[in-house]
Amino acid sequence: MAIEKPINTAVVGCGQWGVKVVSAFARMNALAAVSDADVEQANKIAQDHHVPAMDWPSILEDHSITAVAIVTPAKDHANMIEQAIRAGKHVYVEKPLALSSSDAEAVAALVSRSASTFMVGHILQYHPAFLALKSRVQQGQLGRVRFIRSARFGPGRIRQDEDALWCLAPHDISMILGLTGQQPESVRAHGSSFLRAGIADTVNCRLTFADNLEAEIAVSWAHPYKHRSLVVTGDKGTLVFDDDQPWASKLRYFENTLTWKKGCPTFNQGCSEAISVEEREPLMEQIKHFVECVRTARRPITDVREGLSVINVLEAATNAMRDQTGMPTKSLAQKIPMVDLKVQQRLIKAKLDERIANVLHEGQYVWGREIKELEQKLASYTGCEHVITCSSGTDALLLALLAIGLLPGDAVLVPAFTFVATAEPIVLLGATPIFVDIDPVSLCINPDLIAKGVEAARKAGCRPVGMITVDLFGRPADYTRLHSISSDLGLWLIADGAQSFGASVAGKRVGSLACMTTTSFFPAKPLGGYGDGGAIFTSDAELAAKLRSIHQHGQGDHRYHCVRLGMNSRLDTIQAAILLEKLEVFPKELENRQIVAARYASFLKGIVRTPHPPPPETNVCHAWATYTIRLKNRAALQEHLKSVGIDSIPHYPDPLHKLAPYEKYPTIEGGCPVAEEATSEVLSIPFHPYLDENTQWLVSHAVRQFVASQTC
Prior knowledge:
Blueprint lengths: L8 E4 L3 H12 L3 E5 L3 H11 L6 H6 L5 E4 L6 H10 L3 E5 L6 H12 L5 E4 L6 H11 L6 E9 L10 H17 L5 E7 L9 E7 L5 E7 L6 E8 L3 E5 L8 E4 L2 E5 L2 E5 L3 E3 L7 H15 L7 H20 L17 H22 L6 H14 L3 E5 L2 H12 L5 E6 L8 H5 L3 E5 L13 H10 L3 E8 L8 H11 L2 E5 L7 E2 L2 E2 L6 E5 L13 E5 L2 H10 L22 H32 L15 E2 L5 E4 L3 H10 L29 H9 E4 L7 H19 L1
Helix pairs in contact: 1-8, 4-5, 5-9, 7-9, 10-17, 11-17, 12-16, 17-20
């Protein structure tokens, strides 16, 4: 869903590189104005591109200018970024982000609190040859990466505000950090001033990483011709990105197998090949990415956190040049959350604000018109006839059980592997949950064990009346078999679809696959609000009438006419307004979830046990509420991810029948060993429909690092 208003960008700085940036934005039809301290130069460039020349204060005040590209001397960056962000502009800034980590941290803090898109011009991250190299590294073509070397030489203009390290090395550091997915543990550096005293024109850096990976960076202005290369060496081969070569030869692969003999590396020379790379201008690719990120509210590859990580390495190298010792880099306060709702909110904020303002204007905070509109649209989306919204997913289950007439002495079969809310309402109504083991592939309730659940209920002296199935992590349960089995055994079937809204089986969406389906609008769910909420879906008119009565205190013909035991469980009008706008983008988000899940599967294949997507022949669409991996030493991995700023959650750390309030309730004969094994292994990693490939690689790389360390 694109932002409707155009991306109008003012480029500030029309020097040698600034002119190229101006041209790139003009070719994207995103150039609105130019600015430069040299007014004559600014007027000439403006005339060439048929846009006005403006001064900086006027650009900040002009609300029609939505973005600024800062191509000024680095000493001005931090101050100009702050002014632009406070003026509500999206910002593209050329490297380096700032000239100190303290300035960069202040910028990062400001950007994190804003709704602005922010991007640093680390252009080589967008070079087609580097992207091809990175893809091959991620796919494991080199095996374990051991060493990276980059070089950037050439006669350069000696600057006053930055040395060759800060001028040339940001590109190399950015590429190296993009490949490793981590900050170096220490940096050594040596700088020399051959051309002018006091300004290092030649610098060599050595970066040491946690997993025995080392990288070397060499930059120099004191060189008679340009040379730009990146060499990445692994156990199985070497990739060389030589930007001075023609496009047909910019990227080459050398099949050099690295073996170790008595602690020393030995290369076994193999064949080499040129890798075809599509010829595309890196600057244009970078500007396209910025414009697209503004339009879609996505996080740029080289965002403010990436820019800050580069600054931290640069500052450590500067200190190392002064002290001639290995300097640790600052710990980057990276934070990759499980779900990032800010991206989605930025995308739909204008319409969200309008929806919420309408509720505030009308003042119908309870039972506003948005409630009925939401229920109608949810019914239309799922294909069921009736939707009753309520205050939470747990209430939705409780309402469903009250409507179906659950009584003390009744028994309800539930999977042992689910959140406590599935069993909680059963116990609250005085009935008995019977815990059934799960299928080892889908992790949903195992249809083969339903009969054992009925037998366990009868042995406990209970009446087996129904079952609640859970579409775990977004995958629908085996409804075809469950319907057949429940019918044969005289059980009703309620679906707990708190994690599977949007999923479908043979074209029928969750909500229409059981006599009643419940869902949750908790913020982290596939369709989540900004607070609690839930709904019950049914095509049974009699059940729908009961549900509407029960969730309004058992109301009959009017508010004070009570005809049955009920409860108060209303969805707030403001939440309905928010959900209506979120429902508009939900189909696209569901598509994105498939893409994000497929990327994780590719990155983590063979590293950990990844979720099993439904086979194509089942015609099942997975909603991918979470991406949940499995490995034996789950707790240690979670601690490792935490140490590098990556959130993770074990869904779930204990099976229900092992939790104190539920230990006294029956399980099937033979227990629930599959559920117990799953709860000791599962770990959900960051996942949402706007998760970009670079962040996924960082998460996956951290997992790979951990697994490799355990193997060693």
